[in-house]
Design brief:
The chain has six helices and nine strands. It is of the alpha/beta class. It folds into three domains: 39 residues; 45 residues, no CATH class; 59 residues, no CATH class. The longest helix is centred in the N-terminal third of the chain and has 16 residues. The radius of gyration is 22 Å and the shape is elongated.
Length: 168
C-alpha cells in the first residue's frame, strides 16, 4: 500500500482521488506523524458487491424441493412467529433473517412511495402482472439502481431495455 502524509494528501487530494478511483493506486494510506490514520480505497463495483453478497445468507432458508419460488404467492399465509411460509423455513426466524440481511454491506432499505406504487401500474414493455415484481421493478427504476435477481422473467424484462439487472 502506498502512503502519503496528510500534508501531501491535502496538496494533491484531487489527483490522488483520481488515481485511486481509476485503480492506478489500489489503496492509499494517509499518515500523520508517520502513523496511518486513514486508508483511501476505490469504490466497490456493483458486480463486485453482488459477488461479495452471494452466499451471504446461504443456508438461512430451508426450501423443500416441491416449492416453486418463482410462482406467484398471493394467498399463502406467513407465520412470522413460527418463521415459515408455504413450506419455507427462515432460520432462525424472519425478523432475525431480515435484520442480518439489512446489516450486510451496501444494503439499504428503499421506501415504497405512492409514486412508485403508481408507476408499477404503468411500466413500459411486457412485464407479467405479479404485483411484487412490478413494485420491485418500479422501485429500481425510480432509484436508478439495478435489481439483483435470478428471476428469469425479470432478467428477460431487463433485456427489453426497461430495467437494469445484475443476474446472480
Amino acid at each position: 500500500m502506498e502512503t502519503v502524509s496528510a500534508t501531501e494528501f491535502k496538496a494533491k487530494c484531487l489527483d490522488l482521488l483520481d488515481q485511486v478511483g481509476s485503480r492506478q493506486i489500489g489503496q492509499l494510506g494517509i499518515t500523520k506523524h508517520g502513523r496511518i490514520v486513514a486508508v483511501l480505497v476505490p469504490p466497490v463495483s456493483p458486480e463486485e458487491a453482488v459477488r461479495q453478497l452471494q452466499g451471504f445468507l446461504r443456508g438461512s432458508v430451508a426450501v423443500p424441493e416441491e416449492v416453486d419460488l418463482t410462482a406467484p404467492v398471493l394467498d399463502e399465509p406467513l407465520d412470522a412467529e413460527g418463521g415459515s411460509r408455504a413450506g419455507l423455513q427462515f432460520l432462525p426466524d424472519p425478523k432475525a433473517w431480515f435484520a442480518r440481511l439489512m446489516a450486510a454491506p451496501g444494503i439499504r432499505e428503499a421506501a415504497l412511495t405512492s409514486a412508485i406504487a403508481a408507476d408499477a401500474s404503468y411500466l413500459p414493455g411486457d412485464l407479467h402482472g405479479d404485483p411484487a415484481d412490478r413494485l420491485l421493478v418500479a422501485t429500481a427504476r425510480h432509484l436508478g439502481v439495478p435489481l439483483v435477481t435470478r428471476d428469469a422473467k425479470l432478467i428477460a424484462y431487463a433485456g427489453q431495455g426497461f430495467a437494469r439487472v445484475l443476474a446472480c
